[in-house]
Structures are given as C-alpha cells and as structure tokens.
Amino acid sequence: xxxxxFATLLILINGCMSSPDPETFNRTVSGPQSKNxxxxxxxxxxxxxxxMGKYPLKTYDQEIGVIETDYIxxxxxxxxxxKKKYIPGGYRYKLNLKLIKVKSRTENYVRVVVxxxxxxxxxxxxxxxxxQTDGLEELSILYRIEREVDITKLLARYKK
Length: 160
Prior knowledge:
Blueprint: H1 2-17, E1 33-37, H2 41-52, E2 57-61, E3 66-69, E4 72-73, E5 91-103, E6 108-120, E7 129-130, H3 136-159
Antiparallel strand pairs: 1-6, 2-3, 3-5, 4-5, 5-6, 6-7
Helix pairs in contact: 2-3
C-alpha cells in the first residue's frame, strides 16, 4: 500500500515539475488573423474604431474598410499576459485592420482581418528586420470587436 502512495506522489511531483514555463512558450503565426462577424457593416466599423481607439491611428477609411496604426513602440507595446515586461529597444509594429463585406445566399456578414507587422531594428543604421507575431494581440482585437458588436446589439434590443 505504501508503494502505491509513494508511486502516486512521484508521478504528481514529476507532472508538476514538467509543466511548461510560460516564459519559454513560443507561438508564431505567419499570416493575418480573421473572423466573420454577423452584423451590419456600420455597426462593425464603429466597434472596430472603438476597439482601435487606444492605438495611434495613422489612417482610417470607412469606404474601403481600412484602419491602420502608426508604429507602436516603447511602453505602448502589447505584451502577452504570460510574458514578463521586457521589450527589446528597437522593437516596433503596425496593425492593419481590413473589413470586407461578404454576401452569401443565406446570410450577410463582415470578415474582419487583423494583420500585425512586427519588426526589430538592431541599430540606427540597419534596416528593420521583419519578425513573426504570436497572433495573440490580433485575436484579442477580434474578440474585443465582437464583444462591442454584441453589446451594441443588446442595447438596440432593449431600446425597443
């Protein structure tokens, strides 16, 4: 009986010790993140502007459905919750948001595409080196846009 308890204890300790360290978690995404949201184009545009309002916006045009940020660097950089707050000196990135109206036979929706373009400049004279993103900030932006759309729908329903 003691051997079973001892073996169980060893398995539990070994399982806890072999859990991955969040700092070494490395996820990379090579392309943009997208999500289909079912609502009117104007509602999704307003939700996108409200979500992107905390970023330094460079351009935004509702007619073509584009929101682009200026370079984000320094203290304004988004850091995943599992990482410590360390940002390399030459790290910066842009976010591009594209809204595409999609009409099918059965439903209308808007595809929201978020592209993050991170780069790092090693020194003053070198050209910036493109790096891959982990995709988490893009997913966070898509979640926030969808949440704003849901809130707008609920408020419209209760106004009636």
